[in-house]
Each structure stands twice: as structure tokens, then as C-alpha cells.
Amino acid sequence: MNEQLQATPICDRHRALNALMAPFGGWDMPIQYEGIIAEHSWCRSSAALFDICHMGEFLFQGDFETSGLEDVFTFSVKSIPLGRSRYGFLLNEQGGIIDDLIVFRLTEDKVMIVVNAATAPKDFTVIQGRLKGGVFTDITATTGKLDLQGPLSRYVMVEIFGDEVATIPYFKFITVNILGVEAIVSRTGYTGELGYEIFIPSDKVCELWDLLLTDERVKPAGLGARDVLRLEVGYSLYGSDIDEETTPLEAGLEGFVNFDKTFVGKKALLRLKEQGVTRKKVAFEVAGRRSPRHHYDICSAGETIGNVTSGVFSPMLGKGIGIGFIKPGLAAVGTPLTISHERVSMEAIVCELPFFKGGSVRS
Question: In the prediction, which pLDDT does 1 show?
């Protein structure tokens, strides 16, 4: 039976641009327009526009502590300054990652929670089940989201929306009037480049898409380029690199867990810290241009020691790169590995993240 895919408001425009469309997280999404490498290059050198309307957005209003919201995530909500956002996790009781997400502090008692598309329905149910008060609303259907990413994105945004955009620091946002409606412009993204995420009512998102594409410095980019861009800077992809069977400790993301506060899954993580993880995320570079693929085996001395969770050819490094999970004792930088699958075999070496260090993200 065919999967019934959801469509973003911009789907017709993607098809008019001859985009290659494919299912992603239950949505019909553009994978590429003129080509993954070309779109990747444009984002690294100019400004690329991504349709991210498939992401989930929730609003919570109420007292963060008495409602229980403060205990829902691995970070403190009440300590997020107004106008700033924070990245972290929604965990299960075993410490596994139900989702990675960002919380935006809108007012003293109001936040917006931005979650992944495929997990949005479950996220809403889980969060709602942990709350004891407050007003919790799913605003995904009425919220559009576009990402403008690349070293020239600030110039584009300032020319269209005004000088205030130029003053937004990393992981901070402002509320502005765009096309006659209130919108949130945030200095966040998923590419390793200077960029902005724009949240606007869904009935205005097509108009904003068209407006941004009138600038010759802006071209549309699909999820194919986005995947290469995020992996080059070592960002995890939910459903590939992290999931409910993976803890932040195994994934090398302990820095986004605040052990000084209460949260669901804390006891399990503390036990794991004491016992030690049995597998660990590792980054590796391939000796050549071949791409490691999801589920390829990672081997050492003829023994399979783990598997690849993400892999691509990196245009910036001119070689294959990947991340995966292996036995902790073999995860030291410089350790030689072999990536194999059926008749495919490629030599690799453990390296540090990010693979690409020249991005403009904090410019």
C-alpha cells in the first residue's frame, strides 16, 4: 500500500522547478533541483534556501516548574534567556533519544518547541503526558519554516527585512514584521554556515519563498545537499545517527545534558556513566572518493566492530566521510578502520569532528 505523504505549502513550486521529490519523515520533500553538489557549493559560497515546513512546532504557555515542563528535557527551560534558544533532547526512561529539538524562549511564560518531522506526533503525546498544567498546543499546521543558509545570507536578509537582522547573534532570535505578519527570525541552522531560520504563518510562506528567490544570490537547495552540509560539520541526523536506542552518552552529545537538574532518563544515564558505554560514536575519513553508506560494516583486524550510520562524499574535503558506532576501545583518533559491505571495501581512519572547519556559522 502506498504511503500517504503530507505536502508542504511549497510543493507545487518545487515541482515547477523540476525538483526530484521523495518521501522524508512522512512528507513529500525536494531532494535536489540542479544537483546535490551544485546546491552544496552554493550554500557554502552564497545563500541557499531550504523548505523546512515539514518540521514540527509546539507552543507551551504556563509556569515552567509547576507544569512539569522544566523536567521534560535534558536542559533547563527556565534558564533560557528571553529571545534565545537552546538545543537538547527528549529522552525515554532508558535514556534513549526520543527526539533532538530546540526550545525558543518567547516570553517569561511562553516557549516554542521545534521538533523533527517524523517524530512530531509522538513528541507531542510524550510531552503532553508529562505535563501537569499549562497550555500546550501543536501549531505545526499553521506554521511555515524556511531556512536561508550561507555566507551571503545576512546581506540578503538585511536588504529585504532591515538592519535589525544583522545584529542577531548565534542561537538568538527576534520577532519582526514580514509581509504584514509577525514572524520569528532565528540565527540557527543545520549547515555549518551563517544562516537564518524563519518561522512565518503557513499561508504566507509561499510568498516569502518567492520573495527570497528574487535575489540572484539565493538558490533553492534540497535535502540531499542539506545532508552533505550537516555531515561535513558533524551534526547528527535523527533516525540515522540518534534514535530511541541511542543515548546522548553513546552519541558524544553529553554536553547537551544538564545533570544538575531533574529530567526523564537521568537515572539511566547516570547508571550508564558509572558502567561505561559499550559503543561510541566515531567519525572517520575514507582514503579516497568513495562514499560509505548507512549500515555498512566498520571493521578492524578482520572483525566487525560496528556500523556506519551516516556517510557521504564530502566536496569540501574531496573524500568520503562518515560517522558510526563502534567499540569504545577502538575510537581513538588515528585508529585505522575498514569500511565494508558485500564486495565493497574502503580503508578509513578515525578523525575529529567537525570534518569541515571553515564554515561561516559564527560569523
Answer: 40
Q: How many CB atoms lie within 10 A of CB 329?
A: 10
DSSP characters for 192-213?
A: SSSEEEEEEEGGGHHHHHHHHT
**Amino acid in position 251:** A
Say if CB 225 and CB 48 are below 8 A apart: yes
CA distance 94 to 193: 34
Where does a domain end: 113, 136, 159? 136
- Dist CA 295 CA 307 (whole Å): 6
Nearest to 158 by CA among 223, 212, 112: 212
- The answer as to whether 302 is a domain residue is yes
Look at residue 105 and tell me whether its pLDDT is greater than 50: yes
Residue type at 265 in one-letter notation: G
Domain boundary among 136, 152, 175: 136
Q: What is the pLDDT of residues 144-173, one digit of tens each?
A: 999 999 999 999 999 999 999 999 999 999
Q: What backbone torsions phi and psi does residue 179 show, to the nearest 5 degrees?
A: 55, 35
- CB within 8 Å of 312: residues ≥ 6 apart: 227, 228, 231, 232, 291, 320, 321, 322
Could you give the CA distance from residue 339 to residue 299 in angstroms, rounded to a whole number? Answer: 6
- Residue 317, judged by CB atoms within 10 A of its CB (0-12, 13-18, 19+), counts as middle
User: For residue 36, what is the enclosing H or E element?
Assistant: helix 36-45
Range of the domain at 72: 56-136
Tens of pLDDT along 329-355? 999 999 999 999 999 999 999 999 999
| Contact between 98 and 91 (Cβ < 8 Å) | yes
Query: Is residue 3 scored above 80 in pLDDT?
Result: no
Which CATH number belongs to the domain containing residue 106 in this structure? Answer: 3.30.70.1400
Cis ω before 201 (30° cut-off from 0): no
DSSP 8-state symbol, 343: T
Based on the structure, what is the number of domains in the chain? Answer: 2
Contacts for 129 with CB less than 8 Å, ≥ 6 apart: none
